[in-house]
Amino acid sequence: MDHHQKGLLLTALGVLIISPDALLLRIISIPADQLVLWRGLLNVLGFWLIVVARYRRHWFRAYLACGRAGLGCALLFTVSTLGFVLGNHFTSAGNVLVILASAPLIAALLSRLFLHERLPLRTWLAIGACLAGISLIVLDDAGEGSLLGNALALMAAVGLAGNLTLARSRPGVDMSPMLTLGGLGTALLALAWSGEVMLPDAANLGWLLLLCLVLMPAGFTLIQQGPLYLPSAEVSLLLLLETVFGTLLVWLFLSERPSDQGLLGGAMVLLAMAVKSMLDRRQQKSACSAD
């Protein structure tokens, strides 16, 4: 398996793991400030346990190896998390998702500007098709929203793209351990916002543990390793599949059927990714034949 295929596999698996996020957020019923707080606290523990399991007695060295770039990744991960959660608080979820879908484009521009990476035309076309598809998925929920909410959603997109691009800037260095600090930053800011820690009831706590202690740390650890093998734009492009899979899970378990244009949008995203994958494989085979 070459580097590109490994990157696709890691990122896609991570996206599949976190895809129940939207479904579980519908099920969990606690105030927004407490949701962000517990999300951060449980993320800290979950990410740290994964780092210890992977690196064993050398787990602390894994943090030191990330250096200043790792601190930047942690900060940007916090920015993207807060922007997403607070964006949903101040504007419609549809507006947030449409703006967040610009992350691959932002990542491509950041990579071109700072890393001098050039993306093939097929990637740019896939970004455009996926952005159009995501827009169709959330069209019914999109509205004027608020300037603050839209700005927070844009902050989330920039934070996501910046995190993945910064991780790409350190070839061979796994930045996923620094997500522990990202969770810590989220928890501290949420605590400053709420001023208190409220223990959820047993049912909500169980769902929180599943989502924030297990699924999110496992999924984002895999996704954060994607830039080791793929351009950040491709990693963030694969992340758009979460919207498609998440919508399907909500439909399956909560019987919230997407609109016809939503189904069309999901089909556009999946088709764009399938065509891009096929063209990538054809390009790789041509390169191997030439060698």
From TrEMBL:
It comes from the Bacteria. GO terms for cellular component: membrane. Residues 6-138, 148-275 form the EamA domain. Keywords: Membrane, Transmembrane, Transmembrane helix. The chain crosses the membrane at residues 36-55, 62-86, 92-114, 121-139, 145-166, 178-199, 205-223, 235-255, 261-279. It comes from Zobellella denitrificans. The lineage of its organism: Bacteria, Pseudomonadati, Pseudomonadota, Gammaproteobacteria, Aeromonadales. This is EamA domain-containing protein. InterPro entries: EamA_dom (IPR000620), EmrE-like (IPR037185).
